[in-house]
Amino acid sequence: MTGSTFGTIFKITTWGESHGAGIGVVVDGCPAGLELSETHIQAFLDRRKPGSSRYTTQRKESDSVEILSGIFEGRTTGTPISMLVRNTSQRSSDYSDIASYYRPGHADYTFDQKYGFRDYRGGGRSSGRETIGRVAAGAIASRLLSELGITVTAYTQAIGGIEIPDPERPLKNMDIEESRSNPTGMPDRETSLKAEAYLKQCMENLDSAGGIVACRVSALPAGIGEPVFEKLDANLAKAIMSIGAVKAFEIGDGVRAASANGSSNNDSFRMDDNKVTKTTNHAGGILGGISDGSEIVLRAHFKPTPSIFREQDTVDKNGGNITIQIKGRHDPIIVPRAVVVVESMTAITVLDMLLQNMTARVDRIKTFYGK
Amino acid sequence: MTGSTFGTIFKITTWGESHGAGIGVVVDGCPAGLELSETHIQAFLDRRKPGSSRYTTQRKESDSVEILSGIFEGRTTGTPISMLVRNTSQRSSDYSDIASYYRPGHADYTFDQKYGFRDYRGGGRSSGRETIGRVAAGAIASRLLSELGITVTAYTQAIGGIEIPDPERPLKNMDIEESRSNPTGMPDRETSLKAEAYLKQCMENLDSAGGIVACRVSALPAGIGEPVFEKLDANLAKAIMSIGAVKAFEIGDGVRAASANGSSNNDSFRMDDNKVTKTTNHAGGILGGISDGSEIVLRAHFKPTPSIFREQDTVDKNGGNITIQIKGRHDPIIVPRAVVVVESMTAITVLDMLLQNMTARVDRIKTFYGK
Amino acid sequence: MTGSTFGTIFKITTWGESHGAGIGVVVDGCPAGLELSETHIQAFLDRRKPGSSRYTTQRKESDSVEILSGIFEGRTTGTPISMLVRNTSQRSSDYSDIASYYRPGHADYTFDQKYGFRDYRGGGRSSGRETIGRVAAGAIASRLLSELGITVTAYTQAIGGIEIPDPERPLKNMDIEESRSNPTGMPDRETSLKAEAYLKQCMENLDSAGGIVACRVSALPAGIGEPVFEKLDANLAKAIMSIGAVKAFEIGDGVRAASANGSSNNDSFRMDDNKVTKTTNHAGGILGGISDGSEIVLRAHFKPTPSIFREQDTVDKNGGNITIQIKGRHDPIIVPRAVVVVESMTAITVLDMLLQNMTARVDRIKTFYGK
Amino acid sequence: MTGSTFGTIFKITTWGESHGAGIGVVVDGCPAGLELSETHIQAFLDRRKPGSSRYTTQRKESDSVEILSGIFEGRTTGTPISMLVRNTSQRSSDYSDIASYYRPGHADYTFDQKYGFRDYRGGGRSSGRETIGRVAAGAIASRLLSELGITVTAYTQAIGGIEIPDPERPLKNMDIEESRSNPTGMPDRETSLKAEAYLKQCMENLDSAGGIVACRVSALPAGIGEPVFEKLDANLAKAIMSIGAVKAFEIGDGVRAASANGSSNNDSFRMDDNKVTKTTNHAGGILGGISDGSEIVLRAHFKPTPSIFREQDTVDKNGGNITIQIKGRHDPIIVPRAVVVVESMTAITVLDMLLQNMTARVDRIKTFYGK
Fold first, then answer.
1. The pLDDT value given to residue C52
2. SS3 string of B106-171?
3. DSSP-based helix, strand, coil % in chain D, nearest 5
4. Mutate which of B184, B205, B261, B273 to test chain A, going by most A C-beta atoms within 10 A?
5. Distance CA A295, CA A284 (A)
6. Considering only CB atoms, which chain A residues are within 8 Å of C143?
7. Is residue D221 within 8 Å of D228, Cβ to Cβ?
8. How far is residue A207's CA from residue A185's CA, in Å, rounded to a whole number?
9. DSSP labels, A308-370
10. Which of A26-35, A260-269, C118-127, C250-259 has the lowest mean pLDDT?
11. In this complex, do C229 and D265 lie within 8 Å of one another by their Cβ atoms?
12. Size of the A and D interface in Cβ pairs below 8 Å
């Protein structure tokens, strides 16, 4: 069946394999009148580009985006925006032996089971390159949200067990600029250096590492989210868990809430400057699946890159037990490059639900239509 | 917008408020020919019934289900199955003062912000009673899965910080019968007693507790899940996070994966009895969003019940800072009653994706249509 | 698969068989704040009630609606509105012999082929009673549209070959009150009497008749409809063709357009009272799938009731050629009762697309959210 | 909102404007294992190519398709198939004056009303070039259907009022080869010549013509279609009415059914060679929204091309009454080029519903999964 479309009103459809002709996305339902050019998209794509540090693959991929439709005289027209990134660095021969066996931790076996065969070159559709479409669409969503004063910001919270200090401090106290310039994506230079040392060790051990990406949405109005199945947190969970290698999703206090008490977990409401606010934000900005006006706080837990250079046991397509050693170019960690992917999926989801909320009330519909 | 429908092929639409005329669900897309009666549904509903222990509310709710359509001569006809549970224990007066203020940790404020007003009686649509529709539908999904040899089993893994020993042991080593008969839902009597003592303490403290529900799916074939957005884990995440009070979702090793290494987190493939198996299951049965034939393992983290009997700070509808003390009947923990809800949402999701998978291959479609 | 849900934002899910416990609908996505009671729904349902004339079945069906959810203090809450009509007149024995053969023109054979068996009592899910859910939902849609100044009006244009004079005259020149009070639903008394005479003749011939229902939407703003697949006319076509017995759908000049020339078929634009108007309306109010501000004009062509009392050739379930004679209570025409069904499906579709249009422009979204 | 996606399981998303970089489609949900290459797609696209006769525009458009994803080693992989046709013949200057006024019969006015502005070059998204995506997707659907022994065939039934003789004769008695080689698309040479003479007259009159396209589906198994809203005919109606310029849709006898009697309109069932058949096919192969095993017969009624070279009254963007005379290259009729579009949309719809039907019965699901 179909699985490459996400969203209800702001709807994206991604396509493309690692070693096919290209990767792309069609963004349908983008409102008309947004100033948009390839420059805006490229800025987002560049944040996920490989080759920018020693901890990401050394492939030279330009990942230049071309907008094929939906823009006229510099603005979105309301019609679908099709974006294309050609694949340029295709060394298929690197992957030829992968055809015959199933790499542990990868989707080789499951794709074969589902479809009968697979495009084995570079992981095919399950390659990390698939996220290019998400990020190109996320750039648009993010840009439209910013028109509404809403910002979505992701960063690395932890690599391996190494976590930034005081991870629950508000976003304004995070050094986001730092996170955008260092190779880990962490908003804390000291922790980032520790994490780099850890990654160096992992590489020497022919091993890989996982980590945590946090994402926060600021200035989202209260009232966004559609009970009971289209709750804001439910849709964010799906958006984030659909990213390859994510194994857990948390909103607000997340797993810690399960061992807390109501008295410590409840956030008190208080008036502040004539506005309803919460004195704490254990809820992560969502109550009953609907935004409460506080910062949305979520976390994505990524598993270590499955491609490691150690010997591994596995089976081949003929049902034989074998031992393999993966070659080629593989990041020892995907977290730094995944930051912008988490940010993109969050932006897409939040925008979609913001648009969905516009039909919640008869009085507002009447005002909209001038009645 | 709409938010009360879940699923693509096996599609459920729930409706109803805590203190309205009733609660119900329409199950559309249930295949024809399944033997089904109210007895099967009632057995599931009875597992979430209040009043069965000291840790759940003492309301007397019969929660008797009536099947209104979709069954003929004891079998499903392929047409929508409508199920109705009348609300019987409606003491609306208990909730009259809730109308004027916002309870911390509840959806009172966010519903008002979204819709302009709310049905404040007993939480209205955000009441736990909303899950009746999910469970009635889950009973059907579970029954159909069992026809295919697939079982879905949920249980309580932890309450507060008290966790069952060796929580990662296979389901066959869990005492599920124990979990169905004690008041905590834990598959371990000793831990259950500790948890009960903890809950007793919470109640004496006028406080509440959270916990973890685990759920496992056995004998699911490999190949289920639709990349890239309709991955099995992505849909399970949405299904589970849409349940009220769930703040985190994990698949397999979940959050632990983020601090693991590739060498320890990868599951080796090995031939066992001529079948491809994994020697470990850190992945929780899902690779690349597609089932791998191993047990599916997920965990839902529930926050403590927000209704506690202590004094709490909040604001009223007129923007005044006030202190409230909640009265009425409220569970100190919702986890034991939520076990069957997690099991239901998992069954609904797995069944839906199992049906979606039927169109994955041309050769199988040809066989299906006799070509 | 599922087929009982219609609509994207204003979404209805119908259920129920002719001789089951009841018939109903869940309306999800109805905006909050609409004054609504069972009286409003009942008024619509009464328009499709049988037994009101000699040309409709003599069954005594009260068809009383109960609203089970979604209303609080007389207004919609934004949560799903569940409505139930109990079946009361169930003489299943009338239908016992239908079980063994396939009635020509009915869905008996196709249901058996699809599902392996069928609820044969009174047509089961393919009974005309299925439309009760559509009409109950249509009553809500119509009421909300009227809040926006938009009216949807259906009437009978033709029965057999007998057509009202000047069928293309504007709605304001139609005698809609007449159409609501006579047994044919025609807005012209003289033609109605002719049609009644024709129906009397049909009944004497043990035969049945078909006809045309027209529907018009007034005061719909320009801009409604979503190119290219969710065009307003495409969705109206689906809505109307999903009604049992409809065999053709026209918008504006419809089939006549195919033999016209561009010079006669094009509608000139002209300024009228400072507004853009069309001097003619061959287009039926839709250009490029989007409303143009003129009256929407559509027509539904209904086949004759397939249940006739003459002898008919058919086959039985065992593959034998047989001759049957249908008994029981059957309308010689369904058109008069279908008028409110066409009106309901049109209202549901137009409202849904009106809500969908709210996210078309960035500037309007900014205004909506106060930016 | 979104409107560029069609289908549920076999899901297509089209994009592109007449004078943008290109036109394309993403086909998601295509089953794995279908042999497919650009040759198959190109053959379909060539059938809608302009410039092939004097009755179609003289633009030189190569319309060469590139498959960007979803194919590996000559077979579909189950992942999305992205196809791109670059626009090459872009003389935007031809359209510069269109920017300032609204052409009668076109979507200029409604696009402006909806989106606030429009890409006016060549009709933008409402151009006939939009159908390239539909046809590319239709080529795939048609190819997959042929693997199941099902054929979809469209042809021109009428142009202006000139209709082929005996239009209801079975497909096997139609000269489809003739229809593919003459400039009208009619399966009858004599009528085609008459129609050509008529078109010549239209052109001399600076006028345009409409017509009827018929489409038939052979060998579709009984049981396809999902009551009550996803009926096969309802979805076909939406598919066909979503094609620009279609003003009416008929299934089987269509509008004629409205003036027929039950005794003449009902199709008798009879055993033929041990199979259930119908002695006539007034129903057009669909009963109760489900295929009955007979040939599916539908008709699409196209209005005349709105671009005519006569003087026409209209308004400009500033609200002035003006007279215009359209220039450029415009077909005097779109019907011949629309034949393959109707065939494509029919194939897409039929295939989608064929896939949807696979989950209708428990016993077949059990067989599918080896239980």
1. 53
2. CCHHHHHHHHCCCCCHHHHHHCHHHHHHHHHHHHHHHHHHHHCCCEEEEEEEEECCEECCCCCCCH
3. 35, 25, 40
4. B261
5. 7
6. none
7. no
8. 20
9. -SSEEEEEBTTS-EEEEE--S---S--HHHHHHHHHHHHHHHHHHHHHHGGGSBHHHHHHHTT
10. C118-127
11. no
12. 163
Query: Does residue A134 contact residue A341 with C-beta atoms inside 8 Å?
Result: yes
The Cα C239–Cα C241 span in angstroms is 6
pLDDT recorded at residue C13: 98
Q: What is the largest CA-CA distance in chain B?
A: 72
Cis amide bond preceding A339, omega within 30: no
Q: Where are the beta strands (DSSP E) in chain A?
A: 5-6, 11-16, 22-28, 65-67, 71-72, 75-76, 81-86, 151-159, 162-163, 211-218, 246-251, 269-272, 275-278, 286-287, 290-291, 296-302, 311-315, 321-325
Closest CB to A269: pick one of B276, B293, B315: B315
Rounded Cα gap, residues D321 and D309, in angstroms: 18
Beta carbons within 10 angstroms of residue D247's beta carbon: 27
**Cα–Cα nearest to B229, from D80, C123, A354:** D80
Task: Tell me which residue in B31, B355, B366 faces D148 most closely, judged by beta carbons.
Answer: B366
Question: Does the global pTM surpass 0.80?
Answer: yes
3-state secondary structure of C233: helix
- With CA atoms as reference, the chain A residue closest to D16 would be A69
How confident is residue D49, by pLDDT bands cut at 50, 70 and 90? Answer: confident
DSSP B21: S
What are the structure tokens assigned to A285, written together?
A: 């900005």
Tens digits of per-residue pLDDT, D95-115?
777 899 999 999 999 999 999
Alpha helix (H) ranges present in B158-290?
176-181, 189-204, 232-241, 262-265
Residue D326 corresponds to which amino acid? I
| Cα–Cα distance measured from residue D95 to residue D101, given in angstroms and rounded to the nearest whole number | 11
- Exposure string for C289-304, b = 16+ CB within 10 A, e = fewer: bbbbbbbbbbbbbbbb
In D, minimum Cα distance to B358 occurs at D358
pLDDT of residue D314 exceeding 90: yes
- d(CA B336, CA B55) in angstroms, rounded, equals 9
Between β-strands D290-291 and A311-315, what pairing exists: parallel, antiparallel or unpaired? unpaired
Tell me, what's the ipTM? 0.97
Residue with tokens 């204003």: C10
Residue B296's H or E segment, with its range, is strand B296-302
Residue D33 C-alpha, separation from nearest chain B C-alpha, in angstroms:
6
Q: Which residues contact C287 (CB under 8 A, 6 or more apart)?
A: D105, D106, D107, D109, D110
Q: Alpha-carbon distance B340 to B137, whole Å?
A: 11
A309 phi, psi to nearest 5 deg:
-95, 5
Q: Which of these ranges, B4-13, B326-335, C7-16, C26-35, has the smallest mean pLDDT? A: B326-335
